[in-house]
Write a structure and sequence with these properties.
This protein is an alpha/beta fold. 42% of the residues lie in helices and 13% in strands. The chain contains ten helices and eight strands.
């Protein structure tokens, strides 16, 4: 069972609305169902949701009936019908799950029918195409990008920065590594990251290893209180995590980036996905994923 990110035991939710269970049902991985479903649910901030259940690879009748039984059991246990987001392609399997005691949302069906009319052709209705590895070259390029991000994480292998399309800068724990990995996995970009040391911040000069790559640099920063919380989970009660230490580092790092005319972004209230999109936009690196 997977949580709905940012939802669940939300004390701000209106008790007038009973907590609902959510199912993501797919004949593939369920990633599309989760992405679209979550985007819709976040618009209802007065509603509380229980842990989400992802039912992937529902690709035959037995699995569809097991999914139906699980959904029905949830409705019986909770006394309120769950919400089902479906990306099932097979019509017979879709009917089985739709007959559950649930509010069923077909995330693909309506669009496929509309597109068939517009394009004047029948859709193939083949499961799993959205996240398949049919484009071998593209798949391998992303694997290469992920390996690059791992090999050039946290200032490692700086001699490989020539291959980088982007180098993220910032103090420790501002979100550089997860952003690099997201950009490599989702967009196939070769991204490195470099952590400013205290000495480099005090010098207020760009480290020599970064100077040849100035056009690829972009900085991340964060509010001191939030960074202190993040660092405290790693090293509680340490100077490293103290508010005074992080405030000094952040102020110095931001000053350094301003002096060197390097754009940077405050990540405090942003998800990794949001950080990635903003960085891509500001750096002119929007990829085909956004076409």
């Amino acid at each position: 069972m997977l949580p709905i990110f940012g939802m669940g035991a939300n004390e701000q939710c209106d008790p007038e609305y009973p907590r609902r269970c959510v199912f993501y049902v797919s004949d593939g991985t369920g990633v599309t169902a989760q992405t679209l479903g979550h985007s819709l649910l976040t618009q209802f901030n007065r509603q509380s949701f229980k842990a989400a259940r992802v039912l992937p690879f529902v690709d035959d009748e037995n699995k569809a009936r097991r999914a139906q039984a699980e959904i029905n059991q949830s409705a019986e246990d909770d006394g309120v019908r769950p919400i089902v987001f479906s990306t099932l392609v097979n019509e017979s399997l879709k009917v089985i799950v739709r007959d559950s005691d649930a509010f069923f949302l077909d995330l693909l069906g309506g669009f496929i029918g509309t597109l068939e009319k517009e394009l004047q052709q029948t859709a193939g209705r083949v499961r799993g195409l959205a996240h398949g590895a049919s484009d071998h070259d593209r798949y391998m390029s992303r694997i290469d990008a992920v390996n690059f991000a791992l090999q050039h994480d946290d200032g490692l292998s700086a001699d490989g920065y020539g291959r980088a399309e982007l180098i993220l800068l910032g103090v420790s724990r501002v979100g550089k590594t997860p952003t690099c990995l997201y950009l490599s996995m989702q967009h196939g970009l070769h991204v490195a990251n470099y952590p400013f040391s205290v000495e480099e911040i005090q010098a207020q000069r760009l480290p020599p290893v970064l100077r040849p790559h100035r056009s690829k640099l972009f900085g991340l920063t964060i509010q001191p209180d939030r960074l202190s919380q993040i660092r405290s989970s790693r090293k509680p009660d340490s100077v490293y995590a103290s508010v005074s230490q992080v405030r000094a580092e952040l102020t110095g790092a931001e000053s350094l980036m301003q002096v060197e005319n390097i754009a940077y972004l405050d990540t405090t209230l942003l998800s990794i996905e949001e950080i990635a999109v903003i960085v891509l936009q500001r750096c002119g690196l929007i990829t085909e994923s956004f076409s």
